[in-house]
Amino acid sequence: MNCISCGNKDDTVPVDDYKIWTLYHCKDCNLHFWDPLDFDETQYRNRVKYSRYELFEIIEPYHHQALKVLQDNFKGIHGKLNILEIGCGNGSFLNMLTDKSGLNANYYGIDLNCHAIEFAKNNFGFGENVKCVDFLDESEFSSERLYDILIILEVLEHQTELHVFIDKLKKMLAPGGCIIGTVPNNDRYIPLGIREIWDYPPHHFTRWDSLSLRRLLSNHNFQTIEIMSCNHWSISRLSNHIQSLLVRRFRNFIFKKSVEMETTNMTSLSTFLVFIRTLNKYVIKYIFRILTMPILLIMHSHYINSGRKGTLIMFFAKNIK
């Protein structure tokens, strides 16, 4: 098996299995990747409803960190910048940049989820500057416009055609253009040792650390300007994480039992699950936090003492060729 990033074959070994996938570790560049690399874009395109995108403006701590990086490096530059966010979701970060960055820029965004794009158009007024397209599909997305900044937050780990994706980024960048992105940190602290379900296929196909990122960027003639840790654990985030695991397991248990009992009234089941989610958000969350505070304090102390980094790695790099 050849490493999908550096191409090394001799030092790439299998280390884990999940359903139909095998996880490989390249000891040369330290990338972990799954095989087979089968990405099903319909899981994003064909969602009839994606309420998290449709109902909320989503701003995470790493968005603030990315905003600061862009301000530090581009504020006050003469001329108008063209900025494209790939995987822009509902446009929350683009809207944040528009309102708070102080950059002289035109903002554009693309995403596979058409419901998210509709939200961006209707709620943030981006109009035709945001589109529901596949970045890698030339028939859907090809532009004569070159971009000064490409934003790929939580995007790289989804890619199954890694080099094709990076080459397309370089093709879309203006001379001296930059990319800024984030990936889940494979060296992060994992509460209870239980990895999140989204860190497995068919959601994520690669697991990155600072070494594997630097090697990828260097191999594609990017100058790494900065790689930093972000989204560190707090007591409240630990509490929310553990509780979400428990609530998800309860929800899946109820759904499984309903199927086994051949429940036909799916509307009532859906209403019940929504009720549980709402109750969890406004009541159970705080009761859970109070009851488990001693455990949370021990876990947070263990996280601090472990020397582990934040849940994400942010990278900022310049195209030099």
Q: How would you sum up this structure in a few lines?
A:
The chain is built from ten helices and eleven strands. With 321 residues, it is α/β, with parallel strands linked by helices. It is globular, with a radius of gyration of 21 Å.
Describe the structure.
About 2% of the residues have low confidence. The protein has 321 residues and is an alpha/beta fold. It has ten helices and eleven strands. 40% of the residues lie in helices and 22% in strands. The protein has three domains: 36 residues; 205 residues, 3-Layer(aba) Sandwich (Rossmann fold), CATH 3.40.50.150; 72 residues, no CATH class. It has a seven-stranded mixed beta sheet, sandwiched between helices. A four-stranded antiparallel beta sheet has the order 1-2-3-9, with no helix packed on it.
- Overall structural domain count: 3
Parts with pLDDT < 50 across at least 5 consecutive residues = 48-55
Distance between the termini: 29 Å
Number of helices: 10
Enumerate the strands of the largest sheet in spatial order, edge to edge or round the barrel.
6-5-4-7-8-11-10
**Main sheet characteristics:** 7 strands, mixed
Structural class call reads alpha/beta
Categorize the overall geometry: globular
Q: What's the total count of β strands? A: 11
Top keywords for this entry?
single chain, 321 residues, alpha/beta, seven-stranded mixed beta sheet, four-stranded antiparallel beta sheet, 10 helices
Blueprint of the fold:
Blueprint: E1 12-18, E2 21-26, E3 32-35, H1 42-45, H2 51-55, H3 61-74, E4 81-86, H4 92-100, E5 105-111, H5 114-124, E6 130-132, E7 147-153, H6 162-172, E8 173-184, E9 206-207, H7 210-219, E10 222-230, H8 235-260, H9 266-291, H10 293-306, E11 312-319
Parallel strand pairs: 4-5, 4-7, 5-6, 7-8
Antiparallel strand pairs: 1-2, 2-3, 3-9, 8-11, 10-11
